[in-house]
Write a structure and sequence with these properties.
By secondary structure, the protein is of the alpha/beta class. It has a single domain, classed as Rossmann fold (3-Layer(aba) Sandwich), CATH 3.40.50. The chain has 13 helices and 16 strands. Strands 2, 3, 4, 5, 10, 14, 15 and 16 form an eight-stranded mixed sheet that branches. Strands 1, 6, 7, 8 and 9 form a five-stranded antiparallel sheet that branches. Helix 4 packs across helix 5 (92-103) and helix 7 packs parallel to helix 9 (295-304).
């Protein structure tokens, strides 16, 4: 069964309507069929590898070296020697971090890559062969864990729910947008998919004034993930006395910016061949589907589950606090040029943010937030 038929089967089995988070789960992660579950090369620079998008570790090795400074500090602060990376992609970040941590005199005893899809595992194993003694893979969380958790561009790929408000309706009248079949159409032998809205009790977390059309997203899966991670880290601290910390870097906003009245088309986007489009129903499984991160919701999920929010800052400020400028000064021109994209305000420096958590018995001042901490804006 191909992905289009699988999605059609799920729609019919669900009474003719599929919530968008379920559709996104299938489109990205259906075993052997979803975008992240196939063997294609999604990551890479357009001129070098022809991928669909590039992440910070692929763009510049200085990203991993700067992040390693923060990870090394976190390992000391938590009394642990283990790193967990979620959504490791090509394995480039793990490769850079392991080498940089060794150079810093802070090698780890174990580096665990956690991914719901194993399609990229062979590529990761090849790249990380020199670290085979410490690297392992997992597809689920243990009941208790300690160490330092990192996730670069992982929260944005977690399935989201879509909400719609139509002009002329009251502010509290929302509908959930899902996916249905267009019985009158068929695209190249594939079932044609269309949007379908249903009444819902779901709401954005803050009121959005104005009587205009408004489409947006909410993030129950990302918040549930953070809550579960918090539970496992806190249990690990209770059982072993060693702490846990977590760092997530992604694009997004605090809630006041996320649900601003002018952001009326939401943030849902697709990536294919380094181009962006806004039609997630077209060619499912052939392109990435993402939404910006609600960092206020992420912070509250961790805090409500017992973690301490160590800091929240732009990616630029986070990396500069970790010595990015000094590393750039010591690098050749092409390396500096690519690294500049990570900190330039009009590139990734401002849109991307870093947020960090610690278990309650091991709170400390994280170097990455020494200046420019924006927790007051969450």
């Amino acid at each position: 069964m191909n992905l289009g038929r699988l999605i059609a089967h799920d729609i019919l089995a669900s009474g003719g309507w599929l919530p968008f988070d379920r559709y996104m789960q299938l489109a990205l992660y259906a075993p052997g069929l979803g975008y992240y579950a196939r063997g294609d090369q999604q990551f890479g620079l357009l001129d070098a590898h022809g991928g669909d998008f590039v992440t910070a570790p692929e763009l510049s090795p200085l990203f991993a070296r700067a992040l390693a400074t923060q990870v090394a500090q976190a390992l000391l602060a938590t009394g642990s020697n283990e790193v967990w990376e979620f959504g490791p992609g090509s394995g480039v970040l793990a490769h850079g971090l392991l080498a940089a941590l060794q150079d810093l005199g802070q090698p780890v005893a174990r580096y665990t890559l956690v991914d719901v899809s194993g399609a990229l595992r062979a590529r990761q194993q090849t790249l990380l062969a020199a670290h085979a003694d410490v690297v392992r893979w997992a597809d689920a969380l243990p009941e208790a864990m300690t160490g330092v958790v990192i996730g670069n561009e992982v929260l944005d790929a977690m399935p989201i729910k879509l909400l719609v408000r139509h002009a002329g309706q009251k502010d509290d009248r929302w509908r959930e947008r899902g996916v249905a079949l267009d019985a009158a159409a068929d695209r190249a032998g594939q079932p044609a998919l269309i949007w379908a809205d249903r009444p819902t009790d779901l709401r954005p977390p803050i009121a959005i004034p104005g009587g205009h059309d408004y489409v947006t997203e909410i993030h129950p899966q990302a918040r549930a993930f953070i809550a579960t991670l918090a539970e496992r880290l806190i249990e690990g601290e209770r059982a072993t006395g060693r702490g846990g910390a977590a760092f997530f870097i992604d694009y997004g906003f605090p809630e006041a910016e996320y649900w601003h009245p002018q952001r009326a088309m939401g943030t849902l986007a697709c990536h294919r061949a380094h181009r962006v489009d806004d039609d997630p129903l077209a060619v499912p499984g052939e392109k990435d589907i993402t939404a910006h991160v609600d960092f206020t919701g992420i912070a509250l999920a961790g805090q409500d589950a017992g973690l301490t929010v160590l800091g929240y800052a732009s990616q630029a400020r986070f990396l500069l606090n970790l010595g990015m400028a000094e590393r750039m000064a010591q690098s050749d021109l092409p390396t500096r040029a690519n690294a500049m994209k990570l900190i330039a305000e009009h590139e990734m420096g401002e849109l991307f943010k870093a947020i960090a958590f610690a278990t309650p018995g091991h709170t400390w001042a994280a170097q990455g937030f020494a200046q420019g901490d924006r927790r007051h804006r969450l």
